Amino acid sequence: MATIVFSAMVILLLLGFPMMVPLLVGAGIGFFMMFNGFGQMETMVQQMMGGIRPASLIAVPMFIFAADIMTRGQSAGRLINLVMSFVGHLKGGLAVSTAAACTMFGAVSGSTQATVVAIGSPMRPRMLKAGYKDSFVLALIVNSSDIAFLIPPSIGMIIYGVVSQTSIAELFIAGIGPGLLILVLFSIYSYIYAVRNNVPTEEKATWGERLVSLRDAIWPMGFPVIIIGGIYGGIFSPTEAAAACVLYALFIEVVVFRTLSLTNVYETAKSTGLITAVVFILVAAGAAFSWVISFAQVPQELLGAIGITEMGRIEVLFVISIAFFIGCMFVDPIVVILILVPVFAPVVKSLGLDPVLVGTIITLQVAIGSATPPFGCDIFTAIAVFKRPYMDVVRGTPPFIFILLGVAVAMIFFPQIALFLRDLAFAK
């Protein structure tokens, strides 16, 4: 059965169908073969509805909506100006500012693709004008957006938390350490690149200009306070924090900055609704497909074939990392999480691995795969936004991918990179 299901899915993917179709067809074939017909298809519908029933999933459209509002407004630009005023004059400062702005916007949006659009669109022309090569600029933007998948709020962590029944609040805070480490390493590489290529520096901002940029960015900087402070201060749940972010985004863009009209808000909400529909169809289809492969004991057979049951903790974490990295090179990150997390769940539980550590490693690998050739989704976002050929976008990515993979390996051997802040916030 497994061979037939996966063969049908691969054929549909090669024919160009969107990922939701192979998932639904694969689940349908599985139910048909297991129950000898369509007599039990209501079970498939029940599994699909059960997949989108968790209340935590409400946070996904909320964060997407908030990110879309900010992308259309002034929040991203004000965050960029703030970072530029403090580090723009350093060697490689413009590149460091881009990476830092991606990190700050990630703490607002939780979406890699939204970060590519919001930060990449204004920063790429400035970096090209300053003397950076386009291959470096595109690679920096695409890979710095990965930090948005780790810094809370993270849509990937929300999906993982729902599928694995892991605390989303703990996942959020565990992503901060690796995210900041990646920012530091990207900054060091940007400095080395600027020195080697003799990239000129920007004019140093005065303290008066810095204070003005800080004042202008006060409102956007309230988002991390709401999300992190609200959740860990016991004021909000992650879902409630998402709703608060939408209200806050509407307030600052409509009332304070006055960049969006009610018509703009309606168009933004409609766009968010379309994206949310696609995400929830994927989640529903993934839930049904996961039930099929679990019922058919495919994970046990697959993991037994590679001998994972005889491996130690470190070896298992390496196998998980490789599986998610390769998966996201070809398929949408949400789909990979939905399919592979249930596959590895029994082994993770049997070895007593910390699900928060596993979730953070998976989130990082998903982010890396999203920016890695041949089919990383962030690559195609950059192609569409910047209107550049595929090879131009991927040419400069190897150094950044090497850095990201280095952080992923470090997390396996030094779990406290992710767990230190979690243990402080959730001391038991």
Describe what is shown at a glance.
The protein is mostly helical. The chain has helices spanning 2-14, 20-34, 41-51, 59-72, 75-87, 93-109, 112-130, 134-144, 147-150, 155-164, 168-174, 176-196, 207-217, 222-232, 238-256, 262-295, 298-305, 313-328, 333-351, 355-370, 377-386, 390-394, 398-413, 416-425.
What is the CA-based Rg, rounded? 22 Å
Q: Determine the number of helices (DSSP H or I, runs of at least 4 residues).
A: 24
What is the mean predicted local confidence, pLDDT? 84
How large a portion of the residues is in β-strands, by DSSP E?
Answer: under 5%
Q: Briefly note the structural class of the backbone.
A: mainly alpha
Order of helices and strands: HHHHHHHHHHHHHHHHHHHHHHHH
Percent helix range: over 70%
Distance between the termini: 45 Å
Number of strands: 0
Q: Point out poorly predicted stretches.
A: none
Any idea what the shape is?
globular
Query: Biggest sheet, open or closed, and with what strands and sense?
Result: none
Core attributes:
77% helix; 24 helices; 428 residues; mainly alpha; single chain
What would you say this structure looks like, in words?
This protein has 428 residues and is an all-alpha fold. It has helices at residues 2-14, 20-34, 41-51, 59-72, 75-87, 93-109, 112-130, 134-144, 147-150, 155-164, 168-174, 176-196, 207-217, 222-232, 238-256, 262-295, 298-305, 313-328, 333-351, 355-370, 377-386, 390-394, 398-413, 416-425.
